Amino acid sequence: MANSSLPDNTIRCLVVDQSNELWIGTDNGLAHLNGNTWEVFNESNSGLSDNYVRALAVDENNDLWIGTTLGGVQKFDGTTWINFNTSNSDIPDNFIRTISIDLNGGKWIGTVEGLTYFNDTSWVTWTIANSVILTNNITSIGIGAQNEKYIGTINGGLIYMDSDTTILGVYYILNSGVPDNSVVKVQVDELGKPWYAACAGGLFTDTGNQTWMTFNYANSPMPTNSLTTMKLDDENNFYIGTQQNGLIIRRANSTWGFYTTADSELPEDYILSLAKDADGAVWIGTFSHGLVKLTEGYLAINEQDNRPLKVYPNPVESNGILRFSKILSNPSISISTATGKVVFDEEFSGTLNSFSVPDLESGAYFIRIDEENTSVVIRVMIS
């Protein structure tokens, strides 16, 4: 707000339209950024029914669909506003959490009181009362290449639908081993696999027939399992938001990048929303520090690779797994006590992103990591 026309520093949702222009949902209205030109829409100067904007989607006509906290859904074609709410439509609630447009132009809307589908004429709604779903709190809807739907919820697992409106199944921890019953974002990749960003289960996908592959704190460089949002681009790069650990990037070549307030220009580690435009810029919405534009390139990737090495968790348990903030190549690792006694020394061949800590007494140790022409010593507490 201090250096632009942003109406609020809390950025709840982002979408790039077919003209490569950015739409920004905030706690105080809707903003539109076209190059360096800003427009702001709110209850007092437009047909927006509620300033608390929570969901954005763009349809095949480049019309904007807007979900709010108290005012239902608005359609905005650049001139005219049309509002759909519980008083004038069959939408189940005015608190909208997500909107997705399917391949036929149908609108799939997740509310706190159920899932609803709108084909521009009629509404169909699924709730606990009239279907097999386990919760009415719908968070995200991914659309597959055959128009199938993958639907995330809070505490209700995953809902799978066919290319029409038939529920194929509801999958949760107890009946299928889903890594988390609560999902904040769903996207489908180029191979048709649905990917889920979970509240406490990390990043996971269904590789087929409810066979789950997961990236989490225990088996990958991810610093947390608690995710807030995700953007999967056309090149299969994952941009992942967190509440306390900033931005995580998992690139298509399986390398990882990490951006936090401690080691980048990111102004806040609490990420609420993500989008990527046609020019390759990543737009990041934060909880209280506004909008960030990240322009990537070979230089940025190289800078990421050359950032100081970090290890986590710290403290780490004896016989536990110590993870590295980047992938190491042919490293040598030695561990010394505070008095300088070497208690572990080994050379590793190939790449390494984690390390099994030997059985050591609790206390302070120094881990030395040598890689090619670089060397770093890190103090680690072992519990």
Could you characterize what this model shows?
This protein is mainly beta and 383 residues long. It has 2 domains: 11-305, Methylamine Dehydrogenase, Chain H; 311-382, Sandwich (Immunoglobulin-like), CATH 2.60.40.3080. It has 2 helices and 34 strands. It has helices spanning 173-176, 298-305; strands at residues 11-16, 22-26, 29-34, 37-41, 53-58, 64-68, 73-76, 81-84, 96-101, 107-111, 114-118, 123-126, 138-143, 149-153, 158-161, 167-171, 183-188, 194-198, 203-206, 212-215, 227-232, 238-242, 247-250, 256-259, 271-276, 281-286, 291-295, 311-312, 321-329, 332-337, 342-347, 351-356, 363-371, 374-382. The strands form 9 sheets. A 4-stranded antiparallel sheet has the order 1-2-3-4, with no helix packed on it. A hairpin with a 5-residue loop joins strand 17 (183-188) and strand 18. The longest helix has 8 residues, at 298-305. The radius of gyration is 23 Å and the shape is globular. Residues 298-305 have low confidence and may be disordered.
Short description:
The chain has 383 residues and is mainly beta.
